[in-house]
Automatic annotation (TrEMBL):
<feature type="signal peptide">
    <location>
        <begin position="1"/>
        <end position="22"/>
    </location>
</feature>
<keyword id="KW-0732">Signal</keyword>
<feature type="transmembrane region" description="Helical">
    <location>
        <begin position="202"/>
        <end position="225"/>
    </location>
</feature>
<feature type="region of interest" description="Disordered">
    <location>
        <begin position="249"/>
        <end position="277"/>
    </location>
</feature>
<feature type="region of interest" description="Disordered">
    <location>
        <begin position="175"/>
        <end position="195"/>
    </location>
</feature>
<keyword id="KW-1133">Transmembrane helix</keyword>
<protein>
    <recommendedName>
        <fullName>Mid2 domain-containing protein</fullName>
    </recommendedName>
</protein>
<keyword id="KW-0812">Transmembrane</keyword>
<keyword id="KW-0472">Membrane</keyword>
C-alpha cells in the first residue's frame, strides 16, 4: 500500500471517529448523550451540518409506535420532522406529522435554528407547531399549540436554514409554555424530550472519550509505524544497490605493484610471441 492509500485510510478512520463520538448540545449548553440523534449532514459545507435530529432510531419514519419511537427526518429549515402511527394498546393514534427543535452540534448553537431555546425551553427538546399545518409554514408556535399564530409572538422561520433572518423580531421564548390544561402530550413528544446528562450518561461520555483517545493513538501509531517501515525499506534498497556498484580496491601498495608487474610481464610476453611469429 502506497502513501496515498495510507493517508486515505487515516482520513477515513478520523472521520469515523469524529462522527462516532459526535457531540450534541441543548440550548442551555448542556451536553446530550442521546444515542438516537445524529447530525443531518456530514458535508462541512451543508447548512444542516450542525443540526441534530433523531435519525438514528431504528423504527423508520412513518412506522408504528409499537416498534419504538419513529426516526426523524431533517428539514431544510433546521427543524426535525417526525411521522408515525400508533396501534399500541392504550396509546392508539392516527397517522401524525410533528416537528421538533432537537439539538445542535455546537454549544453556542452557532449555525443552528435557535428557536424555542430560552427559559424553560432551553433544558429539553421542544415540539414546534406550524400555524398553517404544513412543513413550509412561515409562522410557528412553541409546543403543541397554535395559540400564538394570530399574535405578534408568532415565530417566523425561513424555509431554508441560513437563507434569511427571523423577521418576527421576537424572542425564541416568546410563546409562553402551555399550562397543563392546554398542553397536549404524546408518546412521541415524550420520547423526544431529553434533559441534561445523568450519572450513567456521564459514564458513557467518559468511556466514549477514552475509547476515542485510544483509537486516535492507534491511528498515530499506525502512521508512525508505516513511516518507519518506509524508511527501512528505502535504506535496504540503497544498500543492495551499493553492493552491485562496489569496487574492491587493493589492500596496500604492494598489491598495486604486483598487479602492475603482472600486467607488464603479460605485455612483454605478447610482444615476444609476435616477433617470433
Amino acid at each position: 500500500m502506497g502513501p496515498i492509500p495510507s493517508l486515505l485510510s487515516v482520513f477515513l478512520i478520523t472521520i469515523f471517529i469524529t462522527f462516532t463520538f459526535a457531540t450534541a448540545y441543548l440550548p442551555n449548553g448542556t451536553l446530550s448523550d442521546d444515542q438516537g440523534s445524529a447530525p443531518c449532514s456530514t458535508d462541512p459545507t451543508n447548512p444542516l451540518r450542525n443540526t441534530y435530529c433523531h435519525t438514528n432510531w431504528d423504527n423508520p419514519p412513518g412506522g408504528d409506535l409499537i416498534h419504538g419511537s419513529t426516526a426523524d427526518e431533517c428539514m431544510p429549515n433546521g427543524l426535525c420532522q417526525n411521522r408515525g402511527v400508533s396501534t399500541k394498546s392504550g396509546e392508539e393514534q392516527p397517522p401524525w406529522t410533528r416537528y421538533y427543535r432537537v439539538y445542535c452540534g455546537t454549544a453556542t448553537w452557532e449555525g443552528c435554528l435557535e428557536v424555542c431555546s430560552t427559559g424553560p425551553y432551553a433544558d429539553h427538546v421542544v415540539q414546534v407547531t406550524p400555524c398553517d399545518g404544513t412543513s413550509t409554514s412561515e409562522k410557528w408556535c412553541c409546543e403543541n399549540s397554535t395559540a400564538c399564530c394570530n399574535t405578534d409572538t408568532a415565530i417566523v422561520i425561513p424555509q431554508v436554514l441560513g437563507r434569511a433572518n427571523l423577521s418576527a423580531s421576537v424572542s425564541s421564548s416568546a410563546s409562553a409554555p402551555l399550562s397543563p390544561a392546554t398542553a397536549t402530550s404524546s408518546p412521541t413528544a415524550a420520547a423526544h424530550s431529553s434533559g441534561g446528562i445523568s450519572g450513567g450518561q456521564i459514564t458513557g461520555v467518559v468511556v466514549g472519550s477514552i475509547i476515542g483517545g485510544l483509537l486516535m493513538g492507534l491511528v498515530g501509531f499506525l502512521v508512525w509505524f508505516r513511516w518507519q517501515r518506509g524508511r527501512a525499506m528505502t535504506a535496504k534498497e540503497n544498500n543492495e544497490q551499493g553492493v552491485f556498484e562496489h569496487r574492491i580496491a587493493p589492500q596496500d601498495s604492494r598489491e598495486l605493484e604486483a598487479e602492475s608487474r603482472h600486467e607488464l610481464g603479460d605485455e612483454n610476453l605478447k610482444e615476444a610471441r609476435n616477433e617470433l611469429a
